[in-house]
Task: structure prediction
Amino acid sequence: MKTVCLYFQVHQPWRLKVYRFFNIGKDHNYLDDFTNRAIMQKVARQCYLPMNALLLKLIKENKGAFKCSFSITGSAVEQFRAYAPEVLDSFRALAETGCVEFLAETYSHSLAALSSKEDFVEQVKLHSKMIKEEFGKKPVAFRNTELIYSDAIGEMVSELGFKTILAEGAKHVMGWKSPNFIYTNSIDNRLRVLLRNYKLSDDIAFRFSNQGWDQYPLTAEKFAQWVSEENGEVINLFMDYETFGEHQKATTGIFDFVKALPKAILKQPEVCFATVSEAAKAYQPVGVLHCPHVMSWADEERDVTAWLGNELQNEAFSKLYALKDKVKSLKNADFEYVWNFMQTSDHFYYMATKWLSDGDVHSYFNPYGSSYEAFINYMNVLSDFEIEVEKALAAKKSRKKETASA
Amino acid sequence: MRVLMFGWEFPPHIAGGLGTACYGMTRGLARNDVEVIFVMPKASGDEDERFVKVVNASDVEARYSNSTIEGADDIMRKISFIHIDSNMVPYISPEEWDTYREEYERTGKKFWEREGDSWTQRYTFSGKYGANLMEEVARYAVVAAEVARQLEGQFDVIHAHDWLTYFAGIAAKRVSGKPLVVHMHATSFDRSSSDNIDTRVYEIERAGMAAADRVIAVSNLTRNIVIEKYNIPAEKVVTVHNAVRFAEKENELPKRGVEDKIITFLGRITFQKGPDYFVEAAAKVLKRVPNVRFVMAGSGDMMNHVIRRVARLGIADRFHFTGFLKGDDVHKMFQLSDVYIMPSVSEPFGISPLEAMRANVPSIISKQSGVAEVLDYAVKVDYWDVDAMADAIYGFVKYPALAKMFSEKGLEEVTGLKWNSAAAKIKAVYEDAINEVAK
Result:
């Protein structure tokens, strides 16, 4: 028996508006409301709504034989609530079928795992709480931002009580090993690791509409054939949910492909679908995965240099997390809100200066003219936020003094 | 007295200090009873025309083919062997440069176009410096000769600003026989990072000054360069320091967003302006005093380098970049500042500290600037001496008495620097030149 494990990542960052030096100290509204709304509603129309409806239909048609998993970030959910509540309803409808699993991750799609355990734990707990509230179930499997993974990150995740974690089947980590089996974390053997089959995943996510690809056009039958030819037990197809209708537009035939896929795969002998947690439990681990250095699913290098690869990113990152204790001590929801969206990894992605093989991907999503502009804008917002935090702290202190003297 | 003036830019369309200086100067000359016909490429129609008549060079029809214009063929021959090279840019903000260059590459459109037959050629100029600069300079000279011919009898002296218009000045002189005054606002040695100068520009500058009856330098610093490095006879070269013109009406102070002291650098972020020294001084100050913010306003080819350096020094939360500022934003920036600093490696004059002082902002300027010759109430440091720079910043931030003295005395001092008196000196130079030619 072979299992196909489909998992989709749903994320939208809160985009910052153009925030000049002259705004510092005066303007505490950091977000580009118009762009955020416009993008959310566009993606909802082109991807989230039609794709959710399609998946719901497929689940019903196949009577439980078709399953998939999602991870939805806190900032995406916040924007659903603000701009497209019907998307949230359609995800709830999927949750109610029982064939869809929702995973845990960092609330803000943040890089907290690279900052400190404390930051990371807080972000994960916040996210799990949100998923429980929205979809009724506490998540038991975990995926980190951009599949950022290392032995130490796995250990933290296991300590938090998760049984399964997702990671990239990166060549430099896997070596001769196949991603199509279950592995365990090298520090904590109880944590199971599912590894992305990047070849088959990217056939859909990146190559589907590429007419220069020798396998173009990709049909469900052809893809099902490849799946059945793969060696191993679990075929992990992990990709951004925006692949469907947004990166691969409806006109490429991507929805027809998805529509035909479950039947085509289930037609193969000895192949079934499972959610992440089911797939992890279905087989015995074949070995221990050693990953002492941090990896991710991004770029050719599969490392974290897309977010923390130059001095701009490092500076912004360290200046952001230097504020943590102050923000925490305020215990104020307004500050927490800003604190959360400032952590989103996309801000750091915009500051990347590596434009070689993956320059296209970087520039496609980048609202800024250059990484330097992105950096300046982010630091301006952060500076104002810092001033506001300091002010609030001072006010709090003086209030305390007053009550003490009274 | 009437003067035919060749410039390259005029407010509000300015990329640098030359346009501002020309504006102040023409006003000053007008007050001294000098009529100015200001010729510049691409007059867009909204120049303040009260003090100058703007002749749109693009509207001048060159009725004759190049070779028949007396004297112009000589210039054309001089130009023709100069390669058209995009690397040659005297000053321009990179954004403007990029758009300009991009448009050129996209459309393949030349900066001048010929319409109709060879007997009615209309040259359309772009008012910006561009890739085809040398060609543009030459074309400008051809039309200048035509302008001078059409305006025959309407001017007594020709005044050309910076090397871009020197060929135009020479051409006009040949056509009209009137004396030529050239104005050195900057030299090739100020623009390059070493003695490795652009020889084509150097040659034009030298030719312009050699052909001129008088050379005006904006500072003694510039005058010395002119005499020593261009071999121009000292008696021909006169220093007339720039002045600064302020709007009579002071707009109200903008609301301050931050309580911290603000130290400002405002100018093009290029080697010539010494932005690196500002960053190093900032890092030194921030080690001692926390409540200071540094602002670098402007853009330029060293901007990305500076941003990286700021990030590496770990001071990006206290060091801000505004990008290119214009019009009111410049004024606003001065008003928001507590200390202004101009660490220029080489600055022929440098008008911005005067604007800062006018806004009551105490200033630190490099000894390697022309403006240092006319100011007493500004702290003067060597551009490379970041310790002294940091020291001065610290002093202004920590000792209010010092800042107060420099701000009050500085305002007094700068208010005394009037274009009226500078223009009177320029008028005297005109008279000298006219008398000499008449002899």
Summary: The radius of gyration of chain A is 22 Å. DSSP finds 16 helices and twelve strands in chain A. The longest strand of chain A covers residues 2-10. Chain A touches chain B at residues 20-26, 310-312, 314-316, 318-319, 370, 372, 375-376, 379-380, 382-384, 386-387 (CB under 8 Å).
